[in-house]
Amino acid sequence: QVLPQLLDIIPEARLNLIIYHLRAPNGDPQEAFNLLEGVEPSQPREHILKAVVHAVVGQQQGDGGGARESLQTAEQLFHLVGASASECDTIPGRQCMASCLYLRKQFEDALIYLKSIKAYFSADDDFNWNYGIACAAIGDYKEGQQALLSVHNPKYRSEFTYLSWLCRCLVLNGDPVSAWEVYTRQEPTSDTFNLLHIIANDCYKQGHFFIACKAFDVLERLDPDPEFWDAKRGSAVGVFQ
Description:
The protein has helices spanning 11-23, 29-35, 44-60, 65-82, 91-103, 107-117, 125-137, 141-149, 154-157, 160-172, 176-184, 190-206, 209-222, 226-240.
């Protein structure tokens, strides 16, 4: 209520209002993006804030051209700060370089920076989310699972990206039953169907045929695709081998 009245009086008011829209439960990232029009970054923290806004909005926009442009802008701004002589050895600088590499999907390189600052963010949900997914993306499923289970924000824990990576880690770490339990706690949606598909395929590949059979059985009842029947039959044979 107060900050909008101060936008043209105190420069920091605009920055704080942008942060509010990024972090508050009832905040609006698109409004944060609109507020950026009045900001010409001159300090590292302002470049970082602009990068974060572009990254958030770009991810929300999906696969459109505007999304790619926003993510590219975020990547460039993160690199600008992370590679600068004054910031490259600071914690924010390393976060920025990790974020740049993360957006490029260069997860192995991103982890070099994330591991260097991990001790400072052991209880940070945002860090554990990014660290866990980066670990899982390079095949370190044990470390990835540990980091993802350290995320406590209910909103984060309900997102499909989180659930799919967590279930993959659980299955590949030899705990398909827990992955199945994660699925059964979800409300039926298209994302839940996709999650079940991931669990079914990963369990089949890893030889966890009982859970694979259960998953393909549900998939077949939801969508009578002959491939699901064949996979269920193959899983059943695997159970009795």
